[in-house]
């Protein structure tokens, strides 16, 4: 059974091979799509200008991704080989302008040491990203001056209008990184394949066709998926516990244990995301806003320990 998941076509392979020492084949690489950022308002009341997205589409070419902004995770590098700014049909931003997102295609070599990472991408565990880039201008929506000097405060309303900053004039793109809580809500890996299950058929169809080998294989695959699901559930529960302690310290461990046992993975995911939003308010990380400023190492450590 051919596994077409994450396979590069010939055209993509040619782009990928611009970055490799030896010519790689389709079997050598795993590819995936990732939304790096968009022009929607993020949790910090900031948005990228359309020009900033266009500029990043140039600057992020060939840039490698890392985990949790930790450049030491050398074995888990994926490299971007193509980018485009994409309109999503019918979708508008908070200000009714057309929604646009920066969509990147990245590859990672299919070496043994990357197997775990690829599995995490496939199962949605590695999902959310944020970008690190240098931005020259932060334009205030109220007065169009630089928001650092005009006195208006992001997130407040002035004469009924929300104050936010538009990030413009991107001068450099340092990195993109898988993170626990992305600053931008829509940033993350896109599941771009759905054909697999339909092509393989249901267990009933395989059973009816008396394809015992096929049935055995399908059961093996489903067991593996169930294992991945359980792993994902446990990971969500762990994050939920850790973040609850920071955000809702009044909840006892017994309560949380009983509570989370009854929750589905989807409910755990939503609760964990709600806590994540609160976490990012309490301990903000703003990698896209380094703009020459140093990262607050103490704040980032909170995430690294999770
Ligand atoms: Zn202002």
Task: Name the features.
10 strands, 306 residues, two-stranded antiparallel ribbon, 25% strand, binds zinc ion, alpha+beta, globular
Can you describe what's shown?
The protein has about 300 residues and is an alpha+beta fold. It folds into 2 domains: about 10-195 and about 285-305, no CATH class; about 195-275, no CATH class. Helices cover about 35% and strands about 25% of the residues. The strands form 2 sheets. Strands 1, 2, 3, 4, 5, 6, 9 and 10 form an 8-stranded mixed beta sheet that branches. It has a two-stranded antiparallel sheet with strand order 7-8. The protein is globular, with a radius of gyration of 22 Å. The model is unreliable at about 190-200 and about 285-305 (pLDDT under 50). The protein binds zinc ion. The site of zinc ion has 7 residues, from helix 4.
Q: Could you give the topology of this structure?
A:
Blueprint: H1 10-16, E1 29-38, E2 46-48, H2 50-59, E3 64-67, E4 78-92, E5 98-109, H3 115-122, E6 129-140, H4 147-150, E7 157-158, E8 161-162, E9 165-178, E10 188-190, H5 195-200, H6 203-208, H7 212-247, H8 253-261, H9 265-282, H10 297-304
Parallel strand pairs: 2-9, 3-9
Antiparallel strand pairs: 1-5, 1-10, 3-4, 4-5, 6-9, 7-8
Helix pairs in contact: 7-9
Bound molecules: zinc ion.
């Amino acid at each position: 059974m051919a596994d077409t998941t994450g396979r590069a076509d010939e055209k993509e392979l040619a782009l990928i091979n611009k970055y490799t020492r030896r010519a790689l084949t389709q079997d050598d690489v795993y590819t995936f799509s990732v939304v790096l950022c968009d022009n929607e308002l993020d949790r910090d009341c900031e948005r990228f200008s359309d020009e900033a997205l266009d500029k990043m589409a140039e600057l992020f070419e060939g840039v490698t991704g890392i985990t949790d902004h930790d450049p030491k995770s050398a074995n888990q590098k994926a490299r971007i080989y193509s980018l485009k700014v994409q309109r999503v049909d019918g979708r508008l931003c908070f200000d009714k302008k057309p929604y646009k997102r920066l969509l990147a295609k990245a590859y990672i070599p299919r070496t043994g040491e990357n197997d775990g990472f690829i599995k995490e991408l496939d199962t949605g565990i590695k999902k959310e990203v944020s970008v690190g880039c240098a931005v020259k201008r932060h334009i205030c929506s109220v007065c169009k001056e630089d928001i650092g000097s005009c006195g208006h405060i992001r997130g407040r309303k002035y004469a009924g209008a929300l104050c936010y900053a538009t990030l413009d004039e991107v001068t450099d793109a340092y990195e993109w990184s898988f993170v626990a809580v992305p600053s931008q809500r829509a940033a993350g890996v896109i599941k771009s394949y759905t054909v697999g299950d339909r092509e393989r058929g249901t267990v009933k169809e395989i059973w009816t066709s008396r394809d015992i080998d096929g049935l055995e294989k399908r059961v093996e695959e489903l067991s593996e998926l169930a294992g991945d699901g359980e792993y994902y559930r446990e990971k969500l529960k762990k994050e939920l516990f850790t973040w609850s302690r920071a955000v809702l310290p009044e909840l006892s461990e017994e309560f949380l244990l009983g509570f989370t046992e009854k929750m589905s993975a989807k409910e755990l995911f939503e609760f964990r995301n709600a806590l994540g939003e609160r976490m990012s308010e309490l301990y903000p990380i703003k990698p896209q806003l380094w703009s020459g400023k140093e990262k607050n190492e103490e704040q980032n450590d909170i995430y690294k320990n999770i």
